[in-house]
Amino acid sequence: MIELKNISKKYGGRQALQNVTLTIPQGKIIGLVGENGSGKTTLLKLMAGLLTPDEGKATYGGSPITRRIAEHIAYMPDTDLFYPYFTVQQLFDFYASQFDDFDVVKAKEIAQFLNISLDAKMKHLSKGNRGRVKIAVTLGREASYYLLDEPFSGLDPMVRADIAKGLIRFTDIERQTVIMTTHEIREMEPLLDEMVVLKGGQMIASESVDEIRDVYGMDATSWMMSLFRE
């Protein structure tokens, strides 16, 4: 599992994260939510081994998280830097050359499910279809954790719905965990097992969605808004 203990991170003089402690077991879909600038992307990058904390410890299976964690964790940034002249098939082949756990057959199945042509060049795809390809290459890996940074940002409702269905169909939630940052809380709530809320770089709450409904008597969006009004 991923464990974060008293994690703090600064960019220059700006405190991006402060004293965050969080344990993330396998077998969950977790929403990482908060205002812009609350530290969500920084937290994902720390879990992905792309950043190191200034203070505290970040571990996976008891070992310090470094860039080598990429063997076990699939990270999808909010932007893509795909080579524009790659076809989707060539992109899959490239990922297969980089990650031992990348399953080209699975990636093709995801592409078919999301209505993406393997012959299409990346530079000719719309933003929505590029979002679908990002999901295909990420979920095409058989990783223990999938870290998705704003997978629904800027996409129309139909694309968001397709990606949500893909998350359910192509992950094994008995043994894999999906952690996603999202502003689309109301739409994504049916997918989520837990929510982690950040505010000003601090974690202010972590609750299961079932408890939010049963104990607080609220939907996830209303619960989160109540935290920010306190």
What would you say this structure looks like, in words?
The radius of gyration is 17 Å and the shape is globular. It has helices at residues 40-47, 88-98, 104-113, 127-139, 157-169, 185-188, 209-216, 220-229; strands at residues 2-11, 14-24, 29-34, 55-60, 63-64, 73-76, 145-149, 177-181, 194-199, 202-208. The longest helix has 13 residues, at 127-139. The model has no long low-confidence stretch (mean pLDDT 90). It contains eight helices and ten strands. It is of the alpha/beta class. Strand 7 (145-149), helix 5 (157-169) and strand 8 form a beta-alpha-beta unit. The chain has a single domain (2-229), classed as P-loop containing nucleotide triphosphate hydrolases (Rossmann fold, 3-Layer(aba) Sandwich), CATH 3.40.50.300. Strands 6-7-8-3-9-10 form a six-stranded mixed beta sheet, sandwiched between helices. A four-stranded antiparallel beta sheet has the order 2-1-4-5, with helices on one face. Helix 3 runs antiparallel to helix 4 (127-139) and helix 4 packs parallel to helix 5.
